[in-house]
Amino acid sequence: MLYVVGLGLGDEKDITVNGLEAVKKCKRVYLEAYTSILGVPKERLEAIYGREVVVADREFVEQGIDGMLNEALTMDVAFLVVGDAFAATTHSDLVLRAKGLGCKVKHIYNASIMNAIAGCGLQLYRFGQAVSVVFFTETWHPDSFYDRIKENADLGLHTLLLLDIRVKEPSVEALCRGKKEYEPPRFMSCATCARQMLEIEALRGEGVYGPESVCVAVARMGQEDESIKTCTLKEMCNIDMGGPLHSMVLVGETHPLENDMMAMHRAAEHDFLPEDQVPNQYLSDM
Description:
Helices cover 32% and strands 18% of the residues. It is built from 10 helices and 12 strands. Strands 3-2-4-1-5 form a 5-stranded parallel sheet, with helices on both faces. It has a 5-stranded mixed sheet with strand order 6-7-12-10-11. A two-stranded antiparallel ribbon has the order 8-9.
């Protein structure tokens, strides 16, 4: 049996009772570390679960996943996912491959950013499509998110922006030499996202959003030091939200209760970085 277990957003204690019972009866436990990260080291998971936890990074997911699925044909295996297992499409593919091998699969759900974002005070039923925003490079400025935001904005809906996570990414030089060398982990900040958004608006010029558009930045949702700040998109370019992970909301039409909640989270002057301390948004310069 393959147990696909959501861990929630905070720490080792956020696993559900059902999830914990499943993990404790598994002979192999893997922690997916490709689509998200947990706010605590794996040793804390091992202490509470009573099992060794093997980190399944990008290389494992791309090259070693078949070994895990074959194990699940003859023993109980847990695949742990930060947040909820099906918030990332990668895990749907995993389940399909497992089923194709004749492996039994059980899902154990948990909280993810897709529902925890309501903690900022915006109502979930007023959200449209979620979009992903990836790091720009000097020569590549992907703008597909702009069209999805426009569709949401035309309906007056909020847009949740999921910001880029780059963990164990091979460097271009290493790929050219055929060596296994990786870039340091990089996590997009709300400030970088805001700058990229304004750059694309300047290029496309369709008036989907602008410097005065209202946004909400969230960081480390579900953790003890979670942070929620509301400001304009222009102000967001200098917001200091601390460590990862960050997400952002471009606000649509609002209910009075939503306005009150956003006012409660209004960013203060000390929440912003001086211009000379804000990192360049281009990946190659980070």
